[in-house]
Amino acid sequence: MVAILIIIAVLLVVAAAAGVSSRRKAAERARVDRERQIIAGELEGHRQEQDAIVDRAGSAASEAREHRAAAEEHAEQARLHEREAAQHEQAADAAEARFTRAQDAAARHGERAEDARQRLDELGGRR
Q1: Pseudo-torsion of CA 111, 113, 114, 120, nearest 10°?
Q2: Residues near 68 by Cβ (< 8 Å), separated by ≥ 6?
Q3: What is Dmax (Cα atoms) for the chain?
Q4: Within a 13 Å sphere around the CA of 111, how many CA atoms are in the beta-carbon half?
Q5: Alpha carbon distance 22, 29 (integer Å)
Q6: What's the gap between Cα 90 and its chain centre?
Q7: What are the residues whose beta carbons fall under 8 Å from the beta carbon of 94, sequence distance 6 or more?
Q8: HSE (side-chain half, CA atoms, 13 Å) at 37
Q9: Distance (Å, whole) CA 19 – CA 4
Q10: pLDDT value at position 127?
Q11: Has this prediction a pTM greater than 0.70?
């Protein structure tokens, strides 16, 4: 009879240990599941933030391309304006040279006209 009581006691101790072990495992599984849910939420948040950053980066890259294209267009316009300015400067130099030559020619013709008037006066005074 003592042996039966010992066996029953041992079985009760084993059952209690199994129950405690089972509860610990269940508690550990519940803790792991809670951590997984928390980590899954964090992961989703990080993914959403990553998507938002990728969108902003795409917008920034697009804006940079637009600004580069505009800068290149402005640079081309500036080169065109420089060429036009050089042509206008050459035309102005040529016009100033013509003006100077015209002034010189006008002065020479003025002198010749004065000489001619003086000769005419001399000839008119001899009559």
Answers
A1: 150
A2: none
A3: 184
A4: 5
A5: 10
A6: 38
A7: none
A8: 6
A9: 22
A10: 56
A11: no
pLDDT given at position 25: 92
Give me the mean pLDDT over the 87-97 stretch: 96
Q: How is residue 65 written in tokens? A: 């391309």
Both tokens of 118, joined, read 């003086």
Whole-angstrom Cα distance, residue 35 to residue 52?
A: 26
Using the predicted structure, report yes or no on whether residue 8 has a pLDDT greater than 90: no
Match 């304006």 to its residue by tokens. Answer: 81
Three-state helix/strand/coil letters over the chain: CHHHHHHHHHHHHHHHHHHHHHHHHHHHHHHHHHHHHHHHHHHHHHHHHHHHHHHHHHHHHHHHHHHHHHHHHHHHHHHHHHHHHHHHHHHHHHHHHHHHHHHHHHHHHHHHHHHHHHHHHHHHHHC
**pLDDT tens across 29-73, in order?**
999 999 999 999 999 999 999 999 999 999 999 999 999 999 999
